C-alpha cells in the first residue's frame, strides 16, 4: 500500500506539472509569431533563441519536462493502464482550471461537458480493470 500511495502521489504531481504548465507555455510564447528571419534555418534559430532566452517560457517548459521525467521514472513500477488515464484526466482538469485562472477562454460549457465525459470514460476504464 505504501508503494501504491507513493506512485499515486507521483502521478498526481505529474498531472499537476503537465496541466499547470500548458497555459503558462502559451503565455510565455506570446510574441513568437512576430519573430521574422530570411530562410528556414535562420527562422528556426531565431525562434529557438526567442524561447530559450525567455524565462516566462523556459520556467514552465522545464517544470513540464520535470513532470515527464517523473512520469517516466514512475512507470517503472506503476500500472500503465492506470497511470496514463489518471495523468491525462487530471492534467486536463488542471489545464482547464489554470487556463481559466489566467483568463483564457476555455471553451465554455462545451469544454466542461467534454472534461466530464473524459473523466467518466477514464473512471469506467479504471473501474473495469
From TrEMBL:
Topology versus the membrane: Multi-pass membrane protein
Principal subcellular localisation of the protein: membrane
Subcellular location: Membrane
Any one of the GO CC terms: membrane
Pfam families, per the entry: TMEM234
UniProt keywords, alphabetically: Membrane, Signal, Transmembrane, Transmembrane helix
Protein name as annotated: Transmembrane protein 234
Organism: Aquila chrysaetos chrysaetos
